[in-house]
Amino acid sequence: MTTTETTTAAELFSRTLRLDSRPNPYPLYEQMLDLPVTEMSDGSWLVSRHADIKRVLHDPRISANRLDPNAPDPGEAKAPASFLVQDAPSHDRLRGLVMKEFVPRVIGMRDHLEELVGKLLDAHLSDGPGQLDIVDDLAYPLPVTVICELLGVPQEDEPIFGEFARKLTRGLDPVEEPDEAEIRELTQVRNALIDYLNGLIVEKTRNPGDDLLSAFMPADPTVDRLGPLDLRATLALLLIAGHETTVNLIANGTLALLRNPDALARLRNEPELATMLVEEVLRYDPPVQMTARSTTADIEIGGVLVPAGSALRVMLAAGNRDTDVFADADQFVPDRPNNAHLGFGGGVHYCVGAMLARAEAQIALTALSRRLDNPRLVADPPPYRENAVLRGPEHLLVSFDRLRK
């Protein structure tokens, strides 16, 4: 693993953002491991090794405020920041309020998730050859349906915020030269989402139900609650990030299984393998490839002194292939022991929806392995979405000889 002298960290990072790198950015991440903590030309710092990333994610002097020297000005957008990019104590309070209501609803959902997966696949039952788009037919509708049910979003409104999600998550990518038209569109989409959420909140205030949104607005005024701005930001976070990552997890997992037929056969015969297998998907091809942080003090990371006020590019997918931590790091090992992957981040900002995403992926991948006879990829690599941060196929066409009940 040797990085050429002429290849800089900035060049490697820039190449990961290019669409032609989307099918396989891992050779670039491998080169980044030779440049573990490196200042780039825009003043931000690249962090790529597993140990350094863990340090960044757990050090309280490193902020979730994502300073980005290239980020577009949000302009007139009315969307407040979610607790995802806040620090203690506000982060801890808001996250605690959300988890208090979210976790009890997720526990015990497996039977319902199996029912939903079954219905989605039943729509394509076939005694002969057929084809599925894993993204459109399963990986997208499953988490969207679940998060809408949890939050009390009307089913007929699912396509509305689906379009919001597509555009807003594209805005997560670091952009070296943001286009003014794209910035205006992003601001308009953010404001449209906020207007939609305001209407939803008004409706739930008038007609509360047994859903998360209603629970976030308790009738008892003495109970600690999310304020209006935090409520909107939390709803936006759960609706968008709460399903976009799971779409990629299921699609990337399916792709890994079809490229590794021995693992597919094992899962078909050993459904209990699903737990470890999904953890390996989170390591091998994580749905979130990178994140961002900033320093609030001069901090030594990997033997390098990073100044206060520095933006950090935290390359989660590179850390997941660090050979100092993972043997055969470029191999998909479905029963990998002691899998200390970074797929859900770490520290106080560990993914809020990790429990739900794991369950959805375990059930979906197990069902595919059991019900599809002789599944095979129509195109390899499949077409990928533009997003480099939330990386996954735009479509994943799979042919099969039969889709059994």
- Helices, by number, come to 15
Number of domains: 1
The parts where pLDDT drops under 50 for at least 5 residues are: 1-5, 69-79
Strand content: 5-15%
- Major sheet: size, sense and barrel closure? 5 strands, mixed
Query: SSE order in H/E notation?
Result: HHEEHEHHEHHHHHHHHEEEEHHEEEE
Distance between the termini: 47 Å
Strand order of the largest sheet: 1-2-8-5-3
CATH architecture title: Orthogonal Bundle
- SSE class: alpha+beta
Considering DSSP H and I runs of 4 or more, what fraction of the residues is helical?
A: 40-55%
**Tally of strands:** 12
What is the CA-atom radius of gyration, in angstroms? 21 Å
**How confident is the prediction overall: mean pLDDT?**
90
CATH superfamily annotation: Cytochrome P450
Overview of this structure, please?
By secondary structure, the chain is α+β, with helices and mostly antiparallel strands. It has helices spanning 9-16, 26-32, 50-58, 90-106, 110-122, 134-139, 141-151, 158-170, 180-206, 212-215, 228-259, 261-269, 274-284, 316-319, 354-371; strands at 37-39, 45-47, 62-63, 130-133, 291-295, 299-301, 304-306, 311-314, 372-373, 376-377, 397-400, 402-403. The protein has one domain: Cytochrome P450 (Cytochrome p450, Orthogonal Bundle). 47% of the residues lie in helices and 9% in strands. The strands form 4 sheets. Strands 1-2-8-5-3 form a 5-stranded mixed β-sheet, with helices on both faces. Strands 4-11-10 form a 3-stranded antiparallel β-sheet. It has a two-stranded antiparallel ribbon with strand order 6-7. Strand 1 (37-39) and strand 2 (45-47) form a beta hairpin. The longest helix has 32 residues, at 228-259. It is globular.
